Amino acid sequence: MYQLSFSQKLERKLSPKEVSTQAPNKNVDWVVYHVPKTAGSSLRQSFVDALGPSRVFGVYRNTGAAELSVGKPVWIPRSAKVVFGHFPTHSAQTNMFPNAQKVTWVRDPLERAWSLLGHYLATKDESAQYAFVKQHYLDKGITNKDDIFERMIKENALAKNIFVYAHYFESISLDEFDFVGSTTRNGKDLKRLQKLLGKPLVETKENVRNSMSSFPSALRCLESYFASEYEIVANYL
Asked: Rounded to two decimals, what is the model's pTM?
């Protein structure tokens, strides 16, 4: 969840004009696609530390992610140079932000899905995803994380969230991005990115609840279910 600052709330009230294909924002330099559980929170903080909080605008569930995901107009503050959030690619986004470079981070598909389930189980938030896990597994006495994960994969449950790369990069493929980083070489890729940015990027550790939880080797047998996901990101891992 991204919280608008007081000045952003005031600006949106006084100047509610939205960015669209008909009214593009030419001031945004970077559009960063934050695939869930790919160290995106840390990357966003790195941008904030480098550019300042007013330059980095988060587009999440409460600030227009659903609209931007389908190419609909969204409100962006005038000071924003970076648009950063949980939204998949859409062809309209290129026209909405014509001068922006596209950036994303990827992670091993199995490990990313495992971390996502860990997030659901740890936060127990009010999301539809946790409600699904609770109804279909926890309430039925299936509480072991390994068992839940295996059932979810084999039952193709929450496919849009588990097999996320096919969803995020359906409209704009990764080979059209200006920069793709990987969690397996986070520090090195930040150094590569800072050369494009022209400012130092310091590695941060935000929202790393599951980072120390290694993926169980016994569940590597599920890799075949992620064949299409690995095909999308294999060259960038």
From this structure: 0.92
